[in-house]
Design a protein that fits this description.
GO terms for molecular function: maltose binding. By secondary structure, the chain is an alpha/beta fold. The protein has 18 helices and 13 strands. The chain has 2 domains: 196 residues, Periplasmic binding protein-like II (D-Maltodextrin-Binding Protein, domain 2, 3-Layer(aba) Sandwich), CATH 3.40.190.10; 141 residues, D-Maltodextrin-Binding Protein, domain 2 (3-Layer(aba) Sandwich), CATH 3.40.190.10. The protein starts with 7 loop residues before the first helix and ends in an 8-residue tail after the last helix.
Length: 435
């Protein structure tokens, strides 16, 4: 199953664990130099790195940079599309050659801020703009009380389904998060769908496990990657009894043969499966395949309530920047409503501004993906932990979920993940907040 580059922001976190180290944090100080509302005289040239997304996304951002440059003469943007953002950031940071504006995954912003790469945006973002941003955009870019990142789009997952299959099998159809299938009800639904003719009715990332795509099952079970009150231990959280119970049920779907390998990426498109837990990016191809038979449903409630994920690429200012106001001029331009709408249209992402989301054909209250949009707007999604230690947490969970899908004892897999996270926390002195 292919994950678009936009969603790979989360997957790339696995490699970013290498950015951390005992000497990185604690002594880093946030720059006190912020925006003062004044641009330097003459033209300021700024460099901007953008992730190498799908072709329409890159084309839209390239056009946005061109229109920005044509609209005024005070700031000139040189946009560079980066094929491998993770490797490029690591290399540029080591050689002190980071760009002025860096497009980064929101969950990685805390690690980069702690490592001393980023400049806070607090003095740059007007209160009126911040009030119009989705709660997930604000929280997803905030670390140690400072806003370090702000983006144009957000993300989410859904259980896509063929309505006719559910009706034929006599499976209840949920209407939202509040009446999502329970874990046992979902297991029963899989059995009914098999009996109705679909031997393997579910697509659930079997051959390409995705941490970002499956962390919701941990959260819905009552587990978490870390103690979010202290950020000093994963023990009793990622491997809590509730987490073990929930992910044992999750594993049973694989053990009982309900999950299609989807090695060709066409399990749902070709109607081999009735259900696919997948990202917003699959709505358009799935809608083209299923037409009016397509349903967009919540994940099953694994014990502590159905939920959804959040987080995507966001703009950050690096400390390599020449003048914060020049950088903010570019970021503010991209955040204008019509530009947020243009980028969201190009990559099918959730518009980051409430005002734009409300009019979105996909995510507005009457749109086919309103389940995702409404959850983000209402603050009902779960953010990945905004801590410098998240890359290591993500890597540990990715290993655990891969082992669980492969049939390894669930508690052993989660205990190993807890040990790995605890080891990273201890090695980095629990990531002390920069002074």
């Amino acid at each position: 199953m292919k994950i678009p580059t936009m969603a790979l922001a989360a997957v790339a976190m696995l490699s970013l664990a290498g950015l951390t180290g005992c000497a990185a944090g604690g002594t880093t100080t946030a720059s006190s130099t912020g925006c003062d509302g004044k641009l330097p005289s003459g033209t300021t040239d700024i460099s901007v790195w953008y992730h190498n997304g799908e072709a329409p996304d890159v084309a839209a951002m390239t056009q946005l940079a061109a229109s920005f440059n044509a609209s005024q003469k005070k700031v000139h943007v040189t946009l560079k599309v980066i094929p491998d953002m993770t490797a490029s950031v690591k290399g540029a940071a080591a050689s002190k050659q980071l760009p002025d504006v860096l497009d980064t995954d929101s969950a990685n912003a805390a690690n980069e801020a702690w490592s001393g790469y980023l400049r806070p945006l607090d003095s740059c973002i007007p209160a009126s703009l911040k009030a119009d941003l989705l709660p997930s955009i604000v929280s997803g870019g905030t670390y140690a009380g400072h806003q370090y990142a702000v983006g144009l789009v957000d993300s989410g997952m859904a259980m896509y389904a063929y309505k006719s299959d559910l009706v034929k099998a006599g499976v209840r159809i949920p209407t939202g998060l509040s009446d999502a299938w329970t874990a046992s009800e979902f297991t029963d639904a899989l059995a009914k769908l098999r009996a109705a003719g679909h031997k393997q009715p579910l697509d659930l990332w079997k051959t390409s496990p995705c941490a970002y795509c499956t962390e919701t099952y941990l959260w819905s079970s009552g587990g978490d990657l870390v103690d979010r009150k202290t950020y000093k231990t994963a023990s009793g959280f990622i491997n809590s009894p509730d987490a073990v119970t929930g992910l044992t049920t999750f594993q049973s779907w694989f053990k009982d043969g309900y999950v299609d390998d989807n090695s060709d990426g066409a399990a749902f498109l070709n109607h081999r499966v009735s259900l696919s837990w997948n990202g917003f990016w699959q709505y358009k191809p799935f809608a083209a395949a299923a037409g009016s038979d397509l349903l967009v449903l919540p994940m099953p409630n694994m014990g502590k309530g159905a939920t959804n994920t959040q987080g995507s690429w966001q703009w950050t200012m690096t400390k390599s920047s020449k003048d914060p106001d020049a950088l903010w001029a570019w970021i503010a331009y991209t955040l204008e409503p019509q530009n947020v709408a243009a980028i969201a249209t190009s990559n099918s992402g959730v518009p980051s501004r409430k005002s734009v989301l409300a009019t979105s054909a996909l995510y507005g209250s009457n749109g086919p993906l309103a389940l995702i949009g409404d959850g983000l707007a209402a603050g009902k999604t779960v953010a990945r932990p905004m801590t410098p230690g998240y890359p290591a947490m993500d890597a540990a969970y990715a290993t655990a979920i891969t082992d669980i899908i492969a049939g390894k004892d669930v508690k052993t897999a989660l205990d190993t993940a807890a040990d790995a996270i605890n080891s990273d926390l201890k090695q980095n002195e629990y990531y002390p907040t920069p002074k």
